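User: Before I run my own analysis I want an independent prediction to cross-check against. Here's the chain; please return only the structure tokens and, at the end, one sentence I can use as a sanity check.
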Amino acid sequence: MKEFFKIIVPIVTYPVLMGTCLLLHYLILDLDFSLQIATYIPVAVGLTVITLMELKFPHRQEWLAKRGDVLNDLSYMFLVQVLLVKILSFFFSITLLEMLRSSGYTFDRLWPHTWPVYTQAVLMVLSADFLRYWLHRLSHKWMLLWRLHAVHHSPHKLYWINVGRFHPIEKGLQFLFDSLPFIVLGVSGKVLALYFVFFAINGFFQHCNIELKLGPLNYIVSGPELHRWHHSVVIGESNKNYGNNLIIWDLVFGTWYLPKTKMVRELGLKNRKYPLDFLSQLKTPFKKGMDQG
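Assistant: Structure tokens:
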């Protein structure tokens, strides 16, 4: 039985949990609960299962998070991923949209609002990932952007909670690419909520320390098997697999990478003395030479 679980769990975990969370989202909405409840409960369920599975089925024992790691990552998760994003959303929703409307500019007609919600969500994932693909790729090419992005590449191990490790300035740039366009286009709350459930669960999986085998899904989603190579200390390996949620644009533009005969080794930056604590990393992009790798 133990051998059976070792074989089956890596194969079924991603599709079963992702499908369950998306279905749960629809079921809660169908029961007339608020959109917020229907969004955050499935994400909480996914987060809980992934956390437990990291402890039970770790990909690498040495990647298990330590207390100091978790405290720093929680700072990023709360201050950058939650608080900053809410502030930006509020600011642009109130100021920019009102400014555009008062000037007579409306872009609502550019979005297919009459399509089914799930079809709009698919379009949003494809569109947002296209924009984020190029921002991400340029962040590995342009030194100014790379100094910010190096913060995300600094950890020497991957586990779900460090998916949120981004410098606040870079998070602001990401917001301009993957959130603001859809706010301006007037995409409905139901579409945004469905997108968020997929975005969050896939993000947790992308960085998770769970033994997983996605098989054919590695040609659709940007999952952990692909993303681990993106965090390799070897530049030729890390300058691949830029996809945020999907890996389709990497396939289109020739940056898909998943070797069959070897495993990724060291993760992080070449500068092994790059500080890993939250407060220090707010300053590292502005210190010359810190961002090697």
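Sanity check: The mean pLDDT is 92.
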